[in-house]
Amino acid sequence: MTETYDITIIGGGPAGMFAAFYAGMRNAKTQLLESLSDLGGQVNALYPEKTILDVAGFPAIQGRDLIAAQRQQLAQFPLTIKTNQPVTNLVPTADGFAVTTPAGTTQSTAVIIAVGNGAFTPRPLNVPNGEQFEQSGQLVYSVPDKDAFRGQRVLVAGGGDSAIDQALMLEPVAQSVTLLHRRDQFRGLEHMVDLLHQSRVTVKTPYLIRGLATTADGALDVTIKPVGQADENHLVVDRLLVSYGFTSDYHVIEGWDVALDRTRRLIAVDSAMATSVPGIYAIGDGVTYPGKQPLIATAYGEAPLAVHSIMDQFFPDRRGPIHSTSLHRPDATK
Ligand SMILES: Cc1cc2nc3c(=O)[nH]c(=O)nc-3n(C[C@H](O)[C@H](O)[C@H](O)COP(=O)(O)OP(=O)(O)OC[C@H]3O[C@@H](n4cnc5c(N)ncnc54)[C@H](O)[C@@H]3O)c2cc1C
């Protein structure tokens, strides 16, 4: 017997987790399929230690605590959650969709794609011997545990939000933090740039990294060069954290048997989060529409839209949500 679900959610990042919770609120028989061994998407995999400031209701919350809270929220409902289950194909059938993972094929009336940007990998530092320093742990691309940086001299390279976040996150625990960027202007949120300038972080701009070597006592010798000048300087640190952003691999969707309308490699959706294929909805970082911002807050907003759209379209006999505001709204015609 093929397992059948009302809703299948592909991708267990913040968007997919919240959609699964919301599907539980609507009593939909739901499965959540995640390719990694753990839920939480980018937040869990790339910045569990970061303090997130822009999630409604939390003035400040660590990435790992936000995902733990989402997990707790999910546990209220009897949902089927399968990790280590990359979806390899999605095929339209008479009753909905056949969803295939390495563990087999299940059937679903509707699908919500919440795969973010697909599998993500950090953009590497372009120096010939980078791999040698990655192996020694002196060149890193993420901070799974900030205590590993305690008392160290750290150089953070990059000019976007995540470089600033990581420099600020390490400042209280590291002996020193230097932030190096190839431009004078940072691309971070204005408030975070203000915090950076008020912090102990030493800002070095506009500089480029030209090479890595080891000092006699085993520290990391980073050759840096001011942009547009010939002279080179050296910075001696314990760790170099490169934060140049991520490249993502969307190939998995390209191999699916459904033809989704895509713009800039993102899935085009309407205001109900519906894709070009009836029955397939999409939310989170992997979608595009006018004004889309790839943020946790927007993903949280999109999840209920997709779930309600599915319930209205495929299960109209099931009662929709009635909030107290709907019950007491004054009649505008009077
Ligand atoms: C360093 C950094 C800092 C950030 N800071 C903030 C911040 O402070 N505030 C904020 O709002 N946003 C921040 N963001 C952005 C935020 O993380 C994303 O907007 C959010 O993670 C999007 O959630 P998502 O669920 O759409 O995608 P993701 O988090 O990317 O999750 C998608 C999930 O789908 C899974 N998946 C992919 N393909 C498949 C498949 N075929 N089958 C099954 N599963 C699959 C992936 O493994 C992943 O777990 C930051 C991002 C980065 C990189």
TrEMBL record:
Cofactor comment text: Binds 1 FAD per subunit.
Cell cycle found in the keyword field: no
Domain FAD/NAD(P)-binding: 5-298
Keyword Flavoprotein: yes
Top-rank EC class of the record's enzyme: oxidoreductase
Binding site for FAD: E34, Q42, Y47, V87, F120, D285, T325
Classification via Pfam families: Pyr_redox_2 (PF07992)
EC number: 1.18.1.2
Names of the cofactor(s): FAD
UniProt KW keywords: FAD, Flavoprotein, NADP, Oxidoreductase
Catalytic activity: 2 reduced [2Fe-2S]-[ferredoxin] + NADP(+) + H(+) = 2 oxidized [2Fe-2S]-[ferredoxin] + NADPH
InterPro entries noted in UniProt: FAD/NAD-bd_sf (IPR036188), FAD/NAD-binding_dom (IPR023753), Fd--NADP_Rdtase_type_2 (IPR022890), Ferredoxin-NADP_redctase_2 (IPR050097)
Similarity comment text for this entry: Belongs to the ferredoxin--NADP reductase type 2 family.
Quaternary data: Homodimer.
Protein name in UniProt: Ferredoxin--NADP reductase
